[in-house]
């Protein structure tokens, strides 16, 4: 929803133009002219008696006029009244009331006269009256005793004030009394009750009268109303309280507001309706107020006269009243006289035409004197409402007054006749600049004056031709109008004014500007409460105009709230609330135009919770629930969810009962016996669910026997000799009464046995012992309570407990399909031997050895499970040319049966994997040396190798392909007779009797003139694969600072290569996230080397392991053990040292002093112990690299099993799980640890070494 407005400049220009027409006859103030009244007080002038009285009278003229006043028709000599002064250069009177004057003494009719040598102008008759706010008269008010349902009128009867007061009713706490269709205030201020109710009883009905002029409020004494009840209350048909009777009349003046009133009594409260007999109520001017008891028609005219009928109706009947309205009219202007400027010898007229009802009379005055007794003027002739002037002379100048009056009022207008002889003058400033928006009217002023009246002509440019034609409009006041201004209308325009006394011209400038436009308008938005919303307003404007953008909300200023963020092109509202709902308008203003666009923001939210829940129609198994919906928050309610609480069985737990459409506010609910119900309702709309309503009242249903039995009854044995019967217990509200129990019954199926039954408490399980193994049973569970049994339950089939199968599958046969797939068959076991539910068969198989290498490895058994009663299965993923064993076992719910005898089978040969590497060395002018490794997985007996190669020219085109067959026992080859300085691409693979394996590729270049080749080279790509990652390494020859990348993919797949960038210039990379047991292809490339890549290599990740190898040195238990051992050794050393000191003298002290090692602390003199190793501090960890308490040092190589021997060596690497991979470099010789020179991190093993 979006609205757009454009405030054009044409309307503004038109208003200015009309003003120019009105002022076109104004005589410049430097020329002689009669007086003109410019400001005066209103005809009916009510003043505050506490303040000075100011009666305004301002006028202009040349020479400046003098002023005089009349009061009540006689001259008012202000010099004789010290309280009255006249403002300097003005006719305004100031009557000093604040210094002792009395306003009542100056009440009367005042008229001002402004006079100079050319005439006299007079003001209206100004009736001055002081305002009055009298007190209420004392009266004794008796309490009103009213019967419930009767009508009542509380009279206000305010004192008569000037002007009349505003009436309202309040209580003692100054709170307005609530009004409604039943209770309302009439136009006369009385309070009307169509019918009284008990809640109307109160003692503080107070009528207040507010007098605005004196800013005072008068209070009537409180009125008491006491309503007494009688049963039953009698209903009554309507009776009019006001107006009385069936007809009445009303007279209103034209232009005023017509107020008609009808207030009726009755029970039920009557409803008022208005019609106009023989016509329609005027559209756009008719309003209903006071709960339709008042008909209001604004700006009435004679056409609104007629009969207006009000009809009061309730369920018992109706009553009506007809008001005959007559619209009269005080005089109003048709043509008011206007100032007349004439040159000597010219003719002219003054016209005074007015209308009214009754028609007003017209009278003329000259200089304030009735024209009949005014000095005669031969050039003047009065003809009713017109004065005709012929061959005027300068002495004909005067001010004429026209008075139009009837019984409802009068009009008085001044118009002068000014006889002047003046050459033209142009009043518009020279070179005035006009700026107009394109396609809008352009109005170029040429305000002028002259007598006789000058003629006006317009020219385009300084020396252009006179403007004529339909493109222009020439107005009487001299204005040139261009109705639709275009860019080519810009420029200089010249206005020429001439009369018989002279000629004058003036130039103005016209600029045409581009219109301001909103090219991206705000759009209708729906936003959830607490969200964020933004309105756009992107504009385009003339580059010479400075626009200002203003945002409004509901045509008012934006709230003073930091949540409203006004940007250059948008308005953003943060954390939207309900009060932000409304219309947002973007207004763009320049000095010439204004445009706007609006959009509506609708704030939606979850509905408010329903309220006023009511229970009706209570029955044993049903009840009716009704509610009132809460506010839907601008998103219609789609449904209501009804929940219930069982305070008897599950207090505080609410459960789903039903859901009804959003248009429904009642529901009939099904009930269960023996439940203490409470209900609540949740409203749902598109935004979400409301908060739950307040709970309804509680309703307890009567008890009954159960309606249903437990669900999900099962009989499943947990042991070979039992039957466990389980069921889902009934919920509390399903019990239907107290004392819920269950009757559990069972009997063996297909055996002529009687039912065995037992009654148990409210539990969910019963165990039957001593049953045969895995036999079927019929089982049923019936609910009962203190009032009886539930209906007869249905029977279910269960089985007693299972035992392990007794027999292994027989006649196991294996059919080898190819080198990686085999099919196994077996005979099913007898069902009786299964002793349980047959779940399927498991095939255990494992590789015994590879037939090509004759090497055994750790046996890893694999298991395949075949569900159901299948007698065959496929064994995929076998290794070619290998020996396997398998057996088969039957499986039931208890477990697996015995295995069948192991069956041996062998897989045939397959194609080999790619050679493990291909190296090309010793390049010469015409030869290359090739070296390779045998395939990692030969998958059979290798028969030969195939080498294919072809040259590559400088444009990367491939030459003819050469193929060479190489015996299987070879591992190198020298290729001769090659072209010098030529790049070759090699393709190398191995063959078995089955066929060729995947190939490895490499490129190499023969040298030129026995010089090292210039081409970059990546060779000797090697891989070391683990379960989910692989280490890739290579050798590189070529320019420095090459940027390497590794590409890899699944071997044999057509998918695109995956690319990993190598950081820096390293010659190794770790590929992570690989799939265990998968063959991958890999190659290495260098960025910026014309797409140069290494040959491809193929590797296979290791199989998925059941568990990962754990580094023992990082395990908590191992570290704790080492610490304990270290502590014991420390204690033993201290004991030995003490015993040695007791048994003889050793030069320990001298040796310690000689070493002067800061890590060795001297013995404490007080206790004879070492500071570092005292008993009191033996819990402290040893310092890194500390010595034993002797002069001996400990070398790390003294400990053969120290973990530091497997640290980060040059060639050693650790994989992700801590296991060692890569080439073993052997032990590196270590230097003895002297004092603090040791740099190894402390470990439990290092700690032990320090004590050896």
From TrEMBL:
Q: Pfam families given for it? A: Bravo_FIGEY, fn3, I-set, Ig_3
GO cellular component term of the entry, any = plasma membrane
Q: Using the record's annotation, list all stretches that form the Ig-like domain.
A: 35-123, 130-224, 238-326, 331-418, 424-511, 515-602
CDD domains, sorted? FN3, Ig3_L1-CAM_like, Ig4_NrCAM, IgI_NrCAM
Keywords attached to this Swiss-Prot or TrEMBL record, sorted alphabetically, are: Cell adhesion, Cell membrane, Disulfide bond, Glycoprotein, Immunoglobulin domain, Membrane, Repeat, Signal, Transmembrane, Transmembrane helix
Q: Locations of Basic and acidic residues compositional bias?
A: 1147-1167, 1189-1198
Domain Fibronectin type-III, by residue range, is 609-704, 709-803, 808-910, 914-1010, 1012-1104
Question: Which parts of this chain are annotated as the region Disordered?
Answer: 690-710, 1147-1252
Among InterPro entries, the record links this protein to:
FN3_dom, FN3_sf, Ig-like_dom, Ig-like_dom_sf, Ig-like_fold, Ig_I-set, Ig_sub, Ig_sub2
Q: How does it sit in the membrane?
A: Single-pass type I membrane protein
Its GO biological process annotations read: cell adhesion
Similarity section: Belongs to the immunoglobulin superfamily. L1/neurofascin/NgCAM family.
Designated name of the protein: Neuronal cell adhesion molecule
Species of the source: Junco hyemalis
Lineage here is: Eukaryota, Metazoa, Chordata, Craniata, Vertebrata
């Amino acid at each position: 929803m979006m609205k757009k407005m454009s405030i054009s400049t044409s309307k503004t220009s038109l208003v200015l133009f009309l003003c120019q027409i009105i002022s076109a006859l104004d005589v410049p103030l430097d020329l002689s002219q009669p007086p003109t009244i410019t400001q005066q007080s209103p005809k009916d002038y009510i003043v505050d008696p506490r303040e000075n009285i100011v009666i305004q009278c301002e006028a202009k003229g040349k020479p400046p006029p003098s002023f005089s006043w009349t009061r009540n028709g006689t001259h008012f000599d202000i010099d004789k009244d010290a309280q009255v002064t006249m403002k300097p250069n003005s006719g305004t009177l100031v009557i000093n009331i604040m210094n002792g004057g009395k306003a009542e003494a100056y009440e009367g009719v005042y008229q001002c006269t402004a006079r100079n040598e050319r005439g006299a102008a007079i003001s209206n008759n100004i009736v001055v009256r002081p305002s009055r706010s009298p007190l209420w008269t004392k009266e004794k008010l008796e309490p009103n005793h009213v019967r419930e349902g009767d009508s009542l009128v509380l009279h206000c009867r305010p004192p008569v004030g000037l002007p009349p007061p505003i009436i309202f009713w309040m209580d003692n706490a100054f709170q307005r009394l609530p009004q409604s269709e039943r209770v309302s205030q009439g136009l006369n201020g009385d309070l009307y009750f169509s019918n009284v109710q008990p809640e109307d009883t109160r003692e503080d009905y107070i009528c207040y009268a507010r007098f605005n002029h004196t800013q005072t409020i008068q209070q009537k004494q409180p009125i008491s109303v006491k309503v007494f009840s009688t049963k039953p209350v009698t209903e009554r048909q309507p009776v009019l309280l006001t107006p009385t009777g069936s007809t009445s009349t009303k007279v209103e003046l034209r232009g005023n507001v017509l107020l008609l009133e009808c207030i009726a009594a009755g029970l039920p409260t009557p409803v008022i309706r208005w019609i106009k007999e023989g016509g329609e109520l005027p559209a756009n001017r008719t309003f209903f107020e006071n709960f339709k008891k008042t008909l209001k028609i604004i700006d009435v005219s004679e056409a609104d006269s007629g009969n207006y009928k009000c009809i009061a109706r309730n369920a018992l009947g109706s009553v009506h009243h007809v008001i005959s309205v007559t619209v009269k009219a005080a005089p109003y202007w048709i043509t008011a006289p206007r100032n007349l400027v004439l040159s000597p010898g010219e003719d002219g007229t003054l016209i005074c035409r007015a209308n009214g009802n009754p028609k007003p009379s017209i009278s003329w005055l000259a200089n304030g004197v009735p024209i009949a007794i005014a000095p005669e003027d031969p050039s003047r002739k009065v003809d009713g409402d017109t004065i005709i002037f012929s061959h005027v002379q300068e002495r004909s100048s005067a001010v004429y007054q026209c008075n139009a009056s009837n019984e409802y009022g009068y009009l008085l207008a001044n118009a002068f006749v000014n006889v002047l002889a003046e050459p033209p003058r142009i009043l518009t400033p020279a070179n005035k600049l006009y700026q107009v928006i394109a396609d809008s009217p352009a109005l170029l002023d040429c305000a002028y004056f002259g007598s006789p009246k000058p003629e006006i002509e317009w020219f385009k440019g300084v020396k252009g031709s006179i403007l004529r034609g339909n493109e222009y409009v020439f107005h009487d006041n001299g204005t040139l109008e261009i109705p639709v201004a275009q860019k080519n209308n810009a420029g200089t325009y010249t206005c020429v004014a001439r009369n018989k006394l002279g000629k004058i011209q003036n130039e103005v400038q016209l600029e045409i500007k581009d219109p301001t436009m909103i090219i991206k308008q705000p759009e209708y938005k729906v936003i959830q409460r607490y969200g964020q919303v933004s309105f756009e307003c992107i504009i385009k404007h003339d580059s010479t105009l400075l626009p200002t953008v203003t945002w409004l909300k509901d045509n008012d200023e934006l709230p003073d709230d930091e949540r409203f963020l006004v940007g250059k092109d948008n308005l953003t509202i943060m954390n939207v609330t309900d009060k932000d709902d409304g219309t947002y308008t973007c207004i763009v203003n320049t000095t010439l135009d204004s445009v706007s666009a609006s959009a509506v923001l609708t704030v939606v939210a979850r509905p408010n919770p329903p309220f006023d829940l009511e229970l009706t129609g209570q029955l044993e198994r049903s009840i009716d629930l009704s509610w009132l919906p809460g506010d839907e928050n601008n998103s219609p309610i789609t449904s209501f969810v009804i929940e219930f609480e069982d305070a008897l069985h599950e207090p505080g737990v609410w459960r789903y009962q039903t859901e009804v459409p959003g248009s429904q506010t009642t529901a009939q609910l099904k009930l269960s016996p023996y439940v203490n119900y409470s209900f609540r309702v949740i409203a749902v709309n598109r935004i979400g669910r409301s908060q739950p309503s307040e709970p309804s009242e509680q309703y307890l249903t009567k008890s009954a026997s159960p309606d249903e039995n437990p669900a999900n009854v099962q009989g499943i044995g947990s042991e070979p000799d039992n039957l466990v019967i389980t069921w889902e217990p009934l919920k509390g509200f399903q019990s239907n009464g107290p004392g819920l129990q269950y009757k559990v019954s069972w009997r063996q199926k297909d055996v002529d046995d009687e039912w065995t039954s037992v009654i148990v408490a409210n539990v969910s399980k019963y165990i039957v012992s001593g049953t045969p193994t895995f036999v079927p049973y019929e089982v049923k569970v019936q609910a009962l309570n203190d009032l009886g049994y539930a209906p007869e339950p249905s029977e279910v089939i269960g089985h007693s407990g299972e035992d392990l199968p007794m027999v292994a599958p027989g006649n196991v046969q294996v059919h080898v399909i190819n080198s990686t797939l085999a099919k196994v068959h077996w005979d099913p076991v007898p069902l009786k031997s299964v002793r349980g539910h047959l779940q399927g068969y498991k095939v255990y198989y494992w590789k015994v050895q590879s037939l090509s290498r004759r090497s055994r490895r750790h046996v890893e058994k694999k298991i395949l499970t075949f569900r159901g009663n299948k007698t065959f299965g496929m064994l995929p993923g076998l290794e070619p040319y290998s020996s396997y064993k398998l057996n088969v076992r039957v499986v039931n719910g208890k477990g697996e049966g015995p295995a069948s005898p192991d069956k041996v089978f062998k897989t045939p040969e397959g194609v080999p994997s790619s050679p493990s590497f291909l190296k090309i060395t010793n390049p010469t002018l015409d030869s290359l040396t090739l070296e390779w490794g045998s395939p990692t997985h030969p998958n059979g007996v290798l028969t030969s190798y195939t080498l294919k190669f072809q040259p590559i020219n400088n444009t990367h085109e491939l030459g003819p392909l050469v193929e060479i067959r190489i015996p299987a026992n070879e591992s190198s080859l020298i290729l001769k007779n090659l072209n010098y300085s030529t790049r070759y691409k090699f393709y190398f693979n191995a063959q078995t009797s089955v066929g060729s394996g995947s190939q490895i590729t490499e490129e190499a270049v023969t040298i030129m003139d026995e010089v090292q080749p210039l081409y970059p080279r990546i060779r000797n790509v090697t891989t070391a694969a683990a379960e989910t990652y692989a280490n890739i390494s290579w050798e590189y020859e070529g320019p420095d600072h090459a940027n390497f990348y590794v590409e890899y993919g699944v071997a044999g797949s057509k998918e695109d290569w995956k690319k990993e960038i190598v950081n820096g210039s390293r010659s190794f990379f770790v590929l992570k996230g690989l799939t265990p047991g998968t063959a991958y292809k890999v190659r290495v490339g260098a960025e910026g080397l014309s797409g140069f890549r290494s040959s491809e290599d193929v590797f296979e990740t290791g199989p998925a392991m059941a568990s990962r190898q754990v580094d023992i040195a990082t395990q908590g238990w191992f570290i704790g053990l080492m610490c304990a051992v270290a502590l014991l050794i420390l204690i033993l050393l201290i004991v030995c040292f003490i015993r040695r000191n007791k048994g003889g003298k050793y030069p320990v002290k001298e040796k310690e002093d000689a070493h002067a090692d800061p890590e060795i602390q001297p013995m404490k003199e007080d206790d004879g112990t070492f500071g570092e190793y005292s008993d009191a501090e033996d819990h402290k960890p040893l310092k890194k690299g500390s010595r034993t308490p002797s002069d001996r040092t400990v070398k790390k190589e003294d400990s053969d099993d120290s973990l530091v021997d497997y640290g980060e060596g040059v060639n050693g690497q650790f994989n992700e799980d801590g296991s060692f991979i890569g080439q073993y470099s052997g032990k590196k010789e270590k230097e003895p640890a002297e004092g603090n020179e040791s740099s190894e991190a402390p470990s439990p093993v290092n700690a032990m070494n320090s004590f050896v």
